[in-house]
Each structure stands twice: as structure tokens, then as C-alpha cells.
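MODEL INPUT / OUTPUT PAIR
PAIR INDEX: 1
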Amino acid sequence: MARQLRVEFRGALYHVLSRGNERNPIFKNDSDRQLFVKTLEESAELAGVEVIAYVLMDNHYHMIIGTPNSNLSHFMGHFGLTYTVRFNKRHGRSGHLFQGRFKAVLIEEDPYLMVLSRYIHLNPTRTKGLVDTRAEEKWRYLKRYPWSTLPGYIDERKKLNWIRYEKVMNYFRGEKRSSRAAYKSYVMEGLKSTLSNPFDEVKSQTLLGSEEFVEKIRNYFDRGEKIRELPALRSLKKVLTIEEVLTEVANYFCIGRERLISKRGKEFRQIAMEMAYRHTGSSQEKIGKAFGVDYSTVSQNRGRLGVRLKEDRKLLGSFKGISDQLINLSNRKI
């Protein structure tokens, strides 16, 4: 069987699915599920991808992933290998955990993001023991199901600070009810009616979107050239330079460039290194040369930043702010 085509570009959105090898469980207990979520968070932070939703089942998982940096395969390779190594070490086993390559479907954001978020959040109710129960019982089960992003969508207290809830919740702003109440109602509607499977509309095993969206993607690969009408595709090979990243980070924090690349810059310097890694496509060795250090120092500083981002909400806000600014700069260059 031919390998599935990977359609990757900056700003792309995907539904990702992977199953256990021979459909065997990929979790033996809740400790494994906690390990999976922790590994997902770490890998997403390292790759700069956006995790919008996920649900963990016994022998498979679903995720919705956004890729500002056109790096789905890189992210999934690191994540899948890391979790497999950790799982194998914990249970004294060896060999493959997942069945072949992960499956990824490129999604047209509007309207499919909202639809897919509901579809994967409802997944736990499709098991044999729940499929024939009443909607109210299914809802009680879903609210208590801890291995999904749904709790954070409907309860502020259960939010995870690394999940990009706003990508879906923005569709519910402007309602008379709160966006959380509106999303809860939207999910419950799905329990009370028979929903069509959105994946029945997937084209070429890879694309989910309108005919216009699908045609643009097909034309892109048929002609081997950029499409004017689709900004994300136009930026397929567009990356910023290290110097542009340094300038933007320095301006964002209102500090001089020299301070930014010196040891006195502390977290500003760490952020600049991380942004250069995420937004320029440069190796850590090349980034190190711009800062006057070797590649291992870049790696160490990026690691320290990852720890600080988990502990400092203000710093995390600044980190996301400068990242969004660099993405906008990239788009303006096109």
C-alpha cells in the first residue's frame, strides 16, 4: 500500500489518529495515560505546534493539531518515539507500540474545526457499553472522563494552559450565553441526535474541506507551484532569517540587540533562541553562531526556557505574543 501523502504547510490544521500495533492497547493504566499527556505537552512545546483537542481511548487516540511552523511529521516522529520509549521502559518491553505511521487529515478550518472537536470529544460514548444508553447518562460519563480535553472546554477550573481552546471557542463568542455554555449545548446536541461521520467526506484519504479547498490543494501538487488564493500555501517555503527574529524579539521587549544576545539577556535571550529555532528553520548550530555560543548552549537554554514557561504565566503570555507576531511578519513577507 502506498504511503499516505503528507500535505504540510505553515498554519495547516490536522486531525491525527494513531492505533496500537495489531490494535493492542497503548495504555495499560492511568499512569500510562498521564505519561502520554505529559509527553504530548513536552513535544508540542518543543516543536511549537498547537494542540487544540485530544481524546485517549484504550487502543488509539485522536488529536486536532495546528502547525504554525509546517512541521507535523517532525513533531509526530518525536512524540511517537518518545512515548514508545517511555512506555517500553516502564513495562519492560521492546518493539513497536503503534501500528505503522500515524494518519493525518488536512482540515479546512471553517467549518470543520468545530465539527471535529465535537466528534472526537464524543468518542468515549461510542464504546459498546454506552452506545445504547440515554443522552443524559452519556453526558454524565463524558463530564467525568479525564482523558479528553472536553473538561477544559466546559469548566474553567479544568483548563490546561497548553491547550489552545480559543481556536474552537472563538466560534461561540457573541452568543447570549457564555461560550462555555454554548459549547456544552453544542456537544449535548450531538448526544441527542445521530451525527453524520465527518470523515465520510474525506477526499483522497488526506483532505477534509469544501470542494474549493480540495481543488486548491490538488492544483498545488499537480502544478508544483504556489497558489495565490491560499496564503498558507504561499508560505510553504517562506521562513524568517535569524536576524529578523532577533530584531522582532528585541523590539517586542524594548531592549537592545546586544543585550538580547548576551548572557545579561537571560529569559529574553532564551526566548530569542527558541523563536529562531521555531521560525527560521535553522539548526541549533547555526543559531549558536549568531549568539556566539555552541549548539549545546542553545539546546540547554531552550530546555531551561521550557521549564520556566510552565511556572511563569506572564512569561508564557509574552512567549505566545512574540510567536504570533513572528507568524504575522512571515505572512506579510509573502
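PAIR INDEX: 2
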Amino acid sequence: MKSIVNVGQKNSRLLYYAKHVAQLLTPAPYHRSRLDRLLRTIDPETRATLQPRVDYYNRLTESFALPPDAHPLRFSLRVKRRNYHMDLFEFTRCFDPTFRIAYQFGDITETPPYPAVVKARPIAGDNRNAVLFNLNKVRHFVFVDDPVPFEQKRDLLVWRGNAFQENRKRFLARYHRHPLCDVGHAHKRERIPEWQKPYLSIRQQLDYKFILSLEGNDVASNLKWIMASQSLCFMPRPRYETWFMEGTLVPDHHYVALADDFSDLEEKINYYRTHPEAARAIIANAQSYVTGFWNPEHEALVALLVLNKYFMLSGQRIEN
């Protein structure tokens, strides 16, 4: 599940689909026969390490009834949002094929009225019904190996993306001409020409000391690779979280926290331009946080334990 890409590249969708097709060709009974043995043989130290993440993703503590329209997950290449289906089916196929599961695919910004597997959920409020899972990870779980030291990067803040959301529009309206920023809308459908800027690859953005992360329909898809790099992440406090557990990120420890109206952006840029040691400390904290997601065996175990808890609390699975 670790997705380290070469500098300047996103995850390969060809390899992603090839991997899942290969898994589909493996008989499901093989995966189910391994599940109980795998869960029984988790050593106490590993379980103690992983259980807090399991309980963070799946915050349910009491038994619950599934909605009538919940059904066993069936995968087909013809379904919509097949990336979501593939990422969930990779692990549900390890359980009894008659087990029912509720899920909501896509950019979720509200907590479901019943326990359901989702990619993202609101950080604030009671979000127990939103069971986080690593969905559409080919797009969202991208990390980089950045060889360029912080000191050798350009002394500016960079951002590229679409600006159809109000928070992004507010940002560009205020800073698209600022001398400390190279920011702009890279989408052809942009109706405000002065916001338009040429597309920049991940590799090109890594030439800058400061990279902005802005939430879109839910989370910001660039946050993971920024925090894995040797550039400094700037962003307002996140409102939504995913498998990356954005709700546990500490402002001004893992990233430079900005006001929601971006009024302190120039002040923060100037501070870290003149205090590189403070910038390097935050970058080191961010990189340390990111490495917590780089053990593929642990990621798989956490995913299985999240589903196992869901199936047990819904009364479908009896023994651990």
C-alpha cells in the first residue's frame, strides 16, 4: 500500500489496475483461508501499535443494525467509481462473501446516518458512523522521494489546481498577483483569465520552498506528497480527514497553519524565509509522520482489522 513515486510522477494507473486484476484472478477462498490465521497470529506488540489506528478509523463501539439496502460487495469493471470498489474489494474478499456492508463512495463531506465505509469524513462533531477506509488511493495516496534540499529551492509559495470551490476562489482572488506567490488555476474551464497559470508537475512544484495545500471537495490530494518532500507545507486547519488521519496533524508542528481567510500568509512566508531552521524542523516532523504509512503489511492488517470490527459489531462475524 506504500506509494512512493519517482520525483515528478503520480501513481501509475496501469500498474494499479494490473495489480487488482491479478488479485481478481486469485481464488477468493485462498484469501478467506488466510484471514483467521493472519488475525490470530498478530503479535501483541504489533496489535498494540496498530489498534489505535483501527479505533480511529472505525470509532464504532456498540452493535448496530445495517440498513435494508446494505448488500455484499460485488466487483465488476463496469461499475462506476471502480477505483473505490477495487480498493474495498481487495479486503472484503477476505471475509465471508455473504457479509453485507454499507458504503458511500465519492467526496463525502457529511457523516452518514448509519455506519458506512467512506473515503473522507468531517473532523468536527460526532463522526462515528463514517468508517474511514483507504479508497481511491491511486489518486490520493501519492508520496515522493524529493532529493532537493530545502535551501536549494525557490523562495516562493506555489499552488496549482482547479478553483471551483469557494475557499480556493478566495485565495486566488487575494494572492494571484502577490510577489511571494506563484499560484494559479491550471484548469481549462477557468472563467477568470488572470487566475490562469501554466500546469506544473509535482516535480516542478518541488522546486519551491513553500507549497500550499488547499482542501477541494473534501481533502487536499497534494497533502501527502508535500509532507513527504523537503518543501514546507502551508495550509489552513483541515476540516475533513481520510486514511491519512488529517485530524491528528498538529498545526505548526506538521505543517504551517494559516488563518481560514489567509490573512497571515505573507507574514508566515516571510518568517520561514528568514528562519530556515524552523522550516526544517517542521519538514522533519512531517516526514516522520508520513513514514507511519509506509509499511505495506501494517497497512493491510489495519484495513482487515477495520473491516473485522465492522462485521463483528454488525453481528455478522462472531470470532476474531
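PAIR 2 NOTE: The radius of gyration is 21 Å.
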